[in-house]
Amino acid sequence: MFALRPLIAAGAALAFLAFTPLALALDPPAQRVEGKRTDLTGAPGMEVITSITTFMPGDAIALHIHHGVEATYIIQGTMVQVPGKDPMMIETGAQGLNLRDVLHGGYTVVGPGPLKIFAVHIVDKDKPLYDTK
């Protein structure tokens, strides 16, 4: 498995952090590009959304939840840092699943390059794509 263990370890570490608001909004318009959006067949009130989000060095990703499942694929990996922890690498090609209403994020991209994520969200249609807690 390519770099899945470090991503799982990073996710576990992030899950135990208390929420601290970070300086940057989750996805300023210039960073998140929505690809497609459609209703989820056979599941009234649910939709599927694809997007690519690019975070530049210095950008912070606040702790947040989704009202459904988020599947991610790292298009371009880089170093990130959780407050009070050493920087860690999120590898290109790593994949992840963030379950409904489970906090994730809470780190800053430290580089040297951007972090680029492809995401598929299967979420409640009547709720925002994400909420900070």
Describe this structure in words.
This protein is mainly beta. The chain has a single domain (4-128), classed as Jelly Rolls (Sandwich), CATH 2.60.120. Helix content is 9%, strand content 44%. The protein is built from 1 helix and 11 strands. The chain has a 5-stranded antiparallel beta sheet. Strands 3-9-6-7 form a 4-stranded antiparallel beta sheet, with helices on one face. The longest helix has 12 residues, at 4-15. The radius of gyration is 14 Å and the shape is globular. Residues 1-30 have low confidence and may be disordered.
Provide a short characterization of the protein structure.
By secondary structure, this protein is mainly β.
Keywords:
44% strand, Jelly Rolls, mainly beta, 133 residues
Protein topology:
Layout: H1 4-15, E1 32-39, E2 46-55, E3 60-61, E4 64-65, E5 68-76, E6 78-81, E7 88-90, E8 95-98, E9 107-111, E10 115-124, E11 131-132
Antiparallel strand pairs: 1-2, 2-10, 3-9, 4-11, 5-8, 5-10, 6-7, 6-9
Task: Specify the biggest β-sheet.
Answer: 5 strands, antiparallel
Order of strands side by side in the largest beta sheet? Answer: 1-2-10-5-8
By helix and strand content, what is the structural category?
mainly beta
Q: Tell me what the CATH architecture is.
A: Sandwich
Helices and strands, in order, run as: HEEEEEEEEEEE
Q: What is the helix tally? A: 1
Strand fraction: 35-45%
CATH class: Mainly Beta
Distance between the terminal alpha carbons, to the nearest Å?
32 Å
Question: Portion of residues in helices?
Answer: under 10%
The total tally of domains equals: 1
* CATH homologous superfamily label: Jelly Rolls
Give a count of the beta strands, DSSP E runs of length 2 or more. 11
Query: Mean pLDDT, nearest integer?
Result: 83
**In angstroms, what is the radius of gyration?**
14 Å
Q: Are there runs of 5+ residues with pLDDT below 50, and where? A: 1-30
> What's the shape?
globular
For this structure, the CATH topology is Jelly Rolls
